[in-house]
Fold each of these.
Amino acid sequence: MQFRELLSIFECRDGRTDSPGRRLWRRFPEQIQEILEPHLNSRYKSSQKEVNWSKLKKPVYLSKRGSKFSDWSATWAGYLISKVRHELASKVFTCCSFIIKHDYKVTIYLLPHILLYMLLGCTPAEQQEVTEEMLAVLTAGDGRGAECGQVTASSLSQLSTQTVFSMMSHLTQWSRHILYSKPKQNESGEYQRVVAFLKGIPQDVLAKASLRSKAYTRALMHFEAYILENKENIQDHLTFLQRLYAAMHEPDGVRGVNALRREEPSLREQILEHESIGLLRDATACYDRAIQLESDQIGHYHGVMTSMLGLGQLSTVITQVNGVLANKHQWKSELNTYRVEAAWKLGKWDLLEDYLSSDRQSNTWGVRLGQLLLSAKKQDGETFYEKLKLVRKEQVVPLSAASYECGTYQRGYEYIVRLHMLSELEHSFTELQKQRECSTPSLNQLPPHWSDRLEMTQNSFRAKEPILALRRALLSLGPQPMSTEMVGECWLQSARVARKAGHHQTAFNALLNAENTHLAELVTEKAKWLWSKGDVHEALIVLQKGVAQCFPDDKPLTDPRSLQTKSRAMLLVGRFMEETANFESNAIMKAYKDVTNLLPEWEDGNFYLAKYYDKVMPMVTDNKLEKQGNLIRYIVTFFGKALQFGNQYIYQAMPRMLSLWLDFGAKVCECDKAGRSDRQLRQELGKINTVVSEHCANLAPYQFLTAFSQLISRVCHSSDEVFTVLMTIVAKVFLAYPQQAMWLMTAVSKSSYPMRMNRCNQILKKAISLKQSLEKFIGDANRLTDKLLELCNKPVDGNSTTLSMSVHFKQLKRLVEEPTFSQILIPLQSVLIPTLPSTGGANTHHDAFPGHWAYLDGFEDTVEILASLQKPKKISLKGSDGRSYTMMCKPKDDLRKDCRLMEFNCLINKCLRKDAESRRRELHIRTYAVIPLNEECGIIEWVNNTAGLRHILTKLYKERGIYLSGKELRKLILPKTAPFEEKLRIHKEVLCVRHPPVFHEWFLRTFPDPTSWYSSRSAYCRSTAVMSMVGYVLGLGDRHGENILFDSFTGECVHVDFNCLFNKGETFDVPEVVPFRLTQNMVHAMGPMGTEGLFRQACEVTLRLMRDQREPLMSVLKTFLHDPLVEWSKQAKGLSKAQANETGEIVNEKAKTHVCDIDQRLQGVIKSRNKVLGLPLSIEGHVHYLIQEATDDKLLCQMYLGWGPYL
């Protein structure tokens, strides 16, 4: 019926004559047309009687017709439809009002649209009615339960609040759309009316309602709007903000609030902080004090019990609840849930039954699980399944309320975990019943799917711990002796999860409970726990005693699990000995050697042994070349062995192993040339060459590919024997991965130094001799590179903005379209960086590039010329997969630096992924492919969906009518000699005032729904932080508004153009004096807390990680800086090219000072104009110093105006 009327309203039909109705019909997909066809011409009319709305009691919410969600939504929607004055909309909605009564899903969908059309034509009184209805919904829960914070909203209030939110969002998005896309209409009455209506619902009311319905990101969005609109002082609202961040489980936010707070925090605020970082014992102490002060506040008791349960002190919970209830009987329905939960976690079924029967009212999650477990213990199938159905239904209501807007998954995750638990509970119950029928109860190992299911949950303590707790209860349902060891194993898992989340107090309790498990594993976990909370010496003692006790020397081990456990423990002993620095090097070396003797085929053992040898080498050999050969052979051997059995350490082991070998070879050659030739040295080198050749045969080619640029950088090696081995390795990689290797070798094969070119061709010839078919591929690739170089260097006249492939680059087009042209891979980052296998070592069958490969099929005709100084060109490549890929061709720019820096960033990303703290914050650097084609041109993968900071801000300033043109700005440039006070005055009083912060607007527009807004802004804060730290350490400059882009899908910050490195910015005409870009717009867009909270914490995590990984990072940077093919710093004018010509290797004189500078920064040494200031700073101190420098007006006012210090 409804379809029939809707179709007739829009005169929708399928005819021969063109009409709006026919065009609409054609827009339906075929399968929909089939369903609707019969309704096109039917004659039915629906008989609806008019409803008289005048007697309706308002607000409808919670009145007689608004006590159930379906009633309230239908009644209110019906009433609003009667007030729509827009002719077409009124017809459509009236037609739908019949369905509204029967299906509230349709109501929820239509309400936002109904409200909008109603507001466009309503009277002020009607508008006021709507406002009151909404406020009735939003403030319904304000009065009650504000104190104890335990009230969960009813399903009516959850669903109706969410409906109001959806309506508000729709109006906000509509008004933004009108404002930005149709500026003429924003003077109209309709637009003004909607804006006035939106203003009538205060932001702080929305924020509180959102907090109540657990829509935390929305609460934050409204809260910040409230602060901005009313210019509130953030100090007055810190408690609300802290509650929000605590509820969102965002400890960085909680810490940020603490940093902003000027007074001593109250008890409540201290408790929130302790809880958010897992210091539950301290929280309990605070609650205890609160109970002394106000013994009649039930909220404090809730807090104590929750903390105790979190710490796992279950027996204490039971005694405490019983004690409290003896005096205050009226609290039973509130507090019973805690002792119920404690009872089933302890497996005390008789107590559980008592507690459940003593109070029938409460139905919290803990109680529900207790009821289910009890009926499972009693083998009462009927009650069990009946309850299960009910409990599942209860968990789905909040999940469905959350599902009305984007980003539900995070908001509903708690309920998803609960459904996960119910599913495991059901499975275990059916298994138990099966076993009872066969009367052979055998739970001798954990159900096999448990470990997989745990893997799939989010990697956080609060997702995994409830599941593990339930599993322990499930295991104790069965017969006792079998299950104790398995329960112990679950406790051990809990200890691990808690330790990794930094909840040391909870981990300690789990360790106490895990006593029945595999002793050696328990000892190792305990030592790691002690280590992670800083008791280093204690950890070592526990571990040494444990190893001696669990693995006495007289009993040889045979089974693999024990061997593995023992080796793990012994390796930890070695590492702890090394880090505590309590032992001399021979003892430590012996500890590492014992591990490799016990398990010779384990990568960790071999790696740590080699690493330690490497560490003590300078000391043992007094830096004398003669003594080093033997040691280097050992180190190279063990690094190679480690790589044979795994890839965990490949980014440290491979570059270091190659450097040691290649540098030793070069030194031996130097001695020969200087006439100090030494037979013993040449023999040593011969032995090392043999070891490397063996590695070349044993290791997989993709392992060498990870260090390919390092291998290529040494093709001009002075020793012929070394070059022969090097050539074998490179040729092996080339055979296995010709597509990737070819792109990585181009720049050297097109070099202007003859020696480099010749050596490169030698390697290619060797590859062809091993596989004939490569000859055609190499030839085609060479021709392609030549043509791309022509494209890069094509001179462009001043005013043209495009060129055409078919006119200007005929030969390139023709070449690629030849029918016999080889398949050549489009060089995207995803197919250039090898994926390492998760399982051990050099397995040769591993596919290192599982991604999607696209080969070059042709070019789009248009070549766009970009506006910047060197006139780079933007081209589109057609892939064999039918997609189009954009690349940028850059002339007159040595991209080898960018290329090496991308590799460095990829390495930092690998470290960030490994570290628990940075993984939890999803810290990473956005990288892209950079392919140098020769010493001064190259191609770069285009980063899609990004906009530059300057571009975003200019657009926003123009809209507000406060944009300053370049001409006006140029008038404000002061001469270099101008007094400092004048620069500061212009900067603060003119430039900054004329450019108020507007960047936060971009986030609200680009990410309209609260969850994506919040996650994009978090991504912005964190990605900016990571790159600020990495950029500072590397001395990256020239961060003007075009070199910092923002991704309009994720909000993260993307840096481009890494040419100004190693503090080169300090040598500019106007020297750069700030460590990174953190101008007023960037700070303001981080939210009302500014750099406190997410930004500062991410900076600290990144800097700490870079300090911890100082050695591997420095070893990679050294290989970059000593790369004899890249001139990091331009040579002085007097020197000719002749220096490099004979060998093609450049000696980077400045490299040593660069390495030294970076190393100092990683140690916390602060330098200003090359003078060291004071002692090295701690991580927190270092970050604080940098943030202050970057935001200091006294420094910003000295920056070059084109950099945009005022933006």
Amino acid sequence: MRKISVLLFLAWVGFLFYAGIALFTSGFLLTRLELTNHSSCQEPPGPGSLPWGSRGEPGSCWMASRFSRLVLVLIDALRFDFAQPQLSHVSGEPPVSLPFLGKLAFLQRILEIQPHHARLYQSKVDPPTTTMQRLKALTTGSLPTFIDAGSNFASYAIAEDNLVKQLTSTGRRVVFMGDETWNDLFPGAFSQAFFFPSFDVRDLHTVDNGILEHLYPTMDSGEWDVLITHFLGVDHCGHKHGPHHPEMAKKLSQMDQVIQGLVERLENDTLLVVTGDHGMTTSGNHGGDSELETSAALFLYSPTALFPSAPPEEPEVIPQISLVPTLALLLGLPIPFGNIGEVIAEVFSEVEDSQPHSSTLAQASALHLNAQQVSRFLHTYSTAAQDLQVKELHRLQNLFSKASADYQRLLQSPHGAEAALQTVITELQQFLRGVRAMCIESWARFSLVRMAGGAALLAATCFLCLLVSQWATSPGFCFRPLLIPMAWGLTGAVVFVIAEARAAPFLLISLILLLVAQLHWEGKLLPPKLLTIPRLGFLTPAGPPRHNGTHALGLGVGLLLCIRLAGLFHRCPEETPACSSSPWLSPLASMVGGRAKNVWYGACVGALAALLAAVRLWLRRYGNLKSPEPPVLFVRWGLPLMGLGTAAYWALASGADEAPPRLRALVAGASVMLPRAVAGLAASGLMLLLWRPVTVLVKAAAGAPRTRTVLTPFSGPPTSQADLEYVVPQIYRHMQEEFRGRLERTKSQGPLTVAAYQLGSVYSAAMVTALTLLAFPLLLLHAERISLVFLLLFLQSFLLLHLLAAGIPITTPGPFTVPWQAVSAWAFMATQTFYSTGHQPVFPAIHWHAAFVGVPEGHDFTWLSALLVGANTFASHILFAGCPLLLLWPFLCESQGPRKRRQPPGNEAEARVRPEEEEEPLMEMRLRDAPHHFNAALLQLGLKYLFVLGIQILACALAASILRRHLMVWKVFAPKFIFEAMGFIVSSVGLCLGIALVMRVDGAVSSWFRQLVLAQQKAGEQSSLVYTGAGSSAREAQSHLLPPCSQDLLASGTSLFYNSKS
């Protein structure tokens, strides 16, 4: 089986999985239809006369304008409780002391002294709570769908009708200052604009200070009709420090001063609106639908009386999109065509009119206009799309027709019954709220045919992986047992959708206990037959384990301890409020105490040094640090430099805010250059490794004994297997005599002897080196204290590999296989590491700070930031792509104990006479004894790993399909499917790259042998080759049977001498 065929087949299987994911996604995450219709003053929203107050007045449209100017202050992530006062201490309860409470003091004072001029609402936000989707909702009055969340950092111009477009079309001068996202949404719409970069969440002041520089001069100039400001400091402070940090109190106090300055400059015809686009979680993130994320503050203020009554004790809860029709009618604009929000009725009351009937009629007029516009939209939308519920649509249309008829009848007698007007208002509100509820439920459009096709393709590909993985090493396998592991995996993977953070460690611990039981208690606590029967598709090793039970027990205890320690670094999902997240996930910069910060920094640097030392000791243990090859030199000197760069970056990042002002520019520059230097070193090391992957130390010495002639019944090199079976035993006996001193040594007349060291671990050394080089850039993308998790990750992987290798016998010449429990444990460990590094499969838990590591301020490399965030999120998937170690490690561990020497074929009589001799293990060179079995084992390993991953993505797809109408579909199941799909893509690509690296090393080893033969042929003399792997010197070498992988050397007449120690 050719190597390229293995990679091509794995790539084809991966493509089948990708096609299934894409097909399912196209049916599951569909967007709603966006209409391009626009409202206008010339086209009333429905039949009947316009409200009596709008007739003949200048500047009026559907309704007479109440205000001629608007100041809209958008404070990003202004959560509702940020606007609440500091609660007084109640006896018997602990005092409330939160940094964000009571900081908007001027706002609270206005609410108290001017209750008819100001009002505070709790704005209920529709998920997803990402900025771009909230800006669309605040200007169009529509409901952005879930799939729009993916374009949060690649915004496109809004095509739907919106408030900004209505303002510009009526000639209003709109001035904007703040977040540059508005420029993407409304290109060329502003008469004057001051845009500031918004992507760097570490920057708390650039945008806010830029707005304040232009805000008051612009207001005083009077050259504006609508002034929009978008402050970002509160949101960025939440992302960087969280809402409970003292820095949040400073930002809120700054916003309070801004509100005070605006109120003092307002004129009587100007309305002030202060609102947040969304809230934030207790960790400062947003994007989901938790209560804290969907709760924002909305504050209205007018220099003239706006509200007929005092505010209620508890602020009213209103949908966020209700602001759109309210502002449109207050400013005398048409309501945007696609709006489904409901006007805030109380702001349309006639405050100066003592007649309550006039206020009620004004509210009814505004609600009727709003209902007419929504009814027109429903009619147009239902004609273009068929995703609205037909029965509910008819019911709502009948409700609107009745309310509209009642309103038109009462309009003929405006001084009529007050009770009838209240009934009309109630009916109109029921219609508007019913439409919104129907749209929320209906706009999750699903294509069941595509979803079923995608799930079927995923299931078929999983079955293909299972089928071919068994066929690759066992042509006569039985078909029926294939269904058992598939059903087991699918059933177990369903648990991952909801409780993966707890299920992955539990399943991993269960597998570890099973392995320890197999190796330690077989025949003691458990019957031997129970542990040797193949279960659930697991392959039973054909041979005794190579380690005693105590050794396996120690490995298992160490593994369990590592898993428990890694579990201390966890982030709680939002659906488990009783859980408390680990405090060690935050960066050191967020810590207040200097001494504690220094202690933690020392611990992080210590973990980094331990990781470096462990890798170097491992490479030294197997002799892979003695070669003069460029990759080895890089490991000696490049890795320490990468460690120093990482430690220096941590020091700068943790103390950047405390740096003196004159050094901040230097610190900022170094904080950008150090990660780039570490990434550059890692890339250089990987390129050197790919260029020269064989880290072999070759020594040539003259004066070796001249070999005696090997008698063969043929002329020339061996041409058949029969010839090899004849000549190899003679070479074997000759090597025995050579190393035991049975031949007299000659001096200068002897041929050249070549000793090659470190070939016994050539594959695993390349893989471990590559993973270490990848770990450093990935570590920089995480918080400093995650370095402890990375150290545990490497230690945990080492223990698991040794535990798995302890129960896998070495079979020569093959076939080689990796049991199912090993592959499953490796996949579970990757999942456990994902959660141990502080991740959750939800958008609010994404580590956005990774987008700015090594990136200068003010950059516009969106693709680079997305790549950095993706590398941070799926770091565990990248590192655990080194699953070829599962195949290599048992051969590597062969060096831990002597083996009985294999007797050459045809020498049974001599074997009975001679005493048993110990054989130095060939280690990974044994894989080259049977290249076909080696390639088949790589193919089987890749297919098994893809099967385990595919079962997980299939379970997520089925869960999302079955529960597509569940309340938590967009909170749990859809994000989990998206994260699982992305993780599968990263893992499958990493798997192919890992196997390609092993094949690259294998090809380099073959090339190295060929070059050695050619060089010796040019020398024109017979020579010897001593192969060594790790541990001792060449003079301690013992003879071995010549591996078939090197039989090409026989053609040159070269004698080879193998040894596994160096």
